[in-house]
Design brief:
The protein folds into two domains: 12-85, Immunoglobulin-like (Sandwich), CATH 2.60.40; 100-299, Rossmann fold (3-Layer(aba) Sandwich), CATH 3.40.50.150. It is built from seven helices and 17 strands. The chain has helices at residues 49-52, 111-119, 135-142, 154-166, 181-191, 216-230, 249-259, and strands at 4-7, 15-21, 24-29, 32-37, 57-60, 71-74, 82-86, 89-93, 125-129, 146-151, 174-178, 197-200, 205-207, 213-215, 237-242, 266-275, 282-292. The strands form four sheets. The protein has an eight-stranded mixed beta sheet, with helices on both faces. Strands 2-3-4-5-6 form a five-stranded mixed beta sheet, with no helix packed on it. It starts with a strand and ends in a 9-residue tail after the last strand.
């Protein structure tokens, strides 16, 4: 029977979840502190108001419950971009109109598993779908993988390439592709291409470079089924992360477990969480499901 787990990232020197509550989260990205909306944090804040008011920048929606672009209210002047570090990676942080910074710290919860799987094979082929600013792709490449990174956003891909240069990984075998993920996967299947490990982080809704529509609930089952056929005869893993509030981690785990039926390995699922540094309270950040040829990620951390 599939069990659900909570998976938190290892401690970061450059990232800290300071406090959460009242629909917001208070975080430190490198040298700067930010306040961003967080719909999951419906509980009261633990720190007093004056602590939150010291944040360097606060993201404000243009209208209540508006998921569109907003504005950053800077309480001290921040640079257009600044560096963060994780392990041997260096990458740029920026304030975007959609409240994101180019970094999803919760993804690092899977990086030790990713590193371990890659280490079991010489230069495995890794496919990263919906790769955004490339941190998982760069982490895989830094630890010996040949990586193909696919995303529909040209600005995100350029950001990923800048992160590659900043991390000193320009000589690593990384293929950057601007493409619609569904179309790319279908073409790879026709070509007979195979990958040892696949990582995907699909959005709830998205558009491809030519206006193609992506809807998670409608298209994820087909994508997962196709991804299974893209795996090599002795695959290392298939990892899915998702930010779908109307989907359960159990749903995601059941989908992956059914798709991987017949392959020897371990399926795990649950929530990626961030831990407040002062008191250990956990903030749900994303859902995940992972099929692994070895021990599942929750058995590592």
């Amino acid at each position: 029977m599939l069990a659900l787990h909570l998976l938190a990232p290892p401690p970061w020197r450059d990232y800290e979840l300071i406090d959460t509550g009242d629909g917001a989260k208070f975080e430190r990205f490198g040298a700067y502190t930010l306040v961003r909306p967080e719909s999951q944090a419906i509980w009261p804040r633990r720190l007093p108001a004056h602590e939150w008011q010291r944040a360097d920048a606060v993201f404000a929606r243009r209208q209540a419950n508006d998921e569109g672009p907003g504005v950053w209210r800077q309480q001290r002047q921040l640079p257009d971009q600044w560096q963060m570090h994780y392990d041997n990676l260096r990458f740029w942080v920026r304030l975007t109109p959609f409240r994101h910074t180019g970094v999803f710290p919760e993804h690092s919860a899977h990086w030790p598993w990713l590193r371990r799987q890659i280490a079991t094979r010489h230069e495995p082929a890794v496919l990263v779908l919906f790769g955004y600013t490339g941190l998982s792709s760069l982490y895989a490449a830094a630890h010996g993988a040949h990586v193909t990174h696919v995303d529909a956003s040209k600005p995100a891909l350029l950001w990923a390439q800048q992160n590659q240069q900043l991390s000193g990984l320009s000589e690593r075998p990384l293929r950057w592709l601007i493409d619609d993920v569904a179309k790319f996967v279908a073409r790879e299947l026709r070509r007979g291409k195979r990958y040892d490990l696949i990582v995907m982080d699909p959005p709830v809704f998205g558009r491809g470079p030519k206006g193609e529509i992506w809807r998670l609930h409608e298209q994820l089952p087909t994508l997962v089924a196709q991804a299974v056929h893209l795996l090599s005869p002795e695959p290392l893993g298939l990892l899915i992360s998702a930010y779908a509030t109307q989907m359960s981690a159990l749903t995601l785990g059941n989908l992956l477990e059914a798709a991987m039926s017949g392959k020897t390995g371990t399926t795990s699922a649950g929530e990626l969480v961030l831990r407040e540094q002062q008191n250990g309270r956990l903030l749900p950040a994303a859902l995940y499901a992972c099929w692994s040829s070895g021990p599942a990620p929750h058995q590592v951390y």
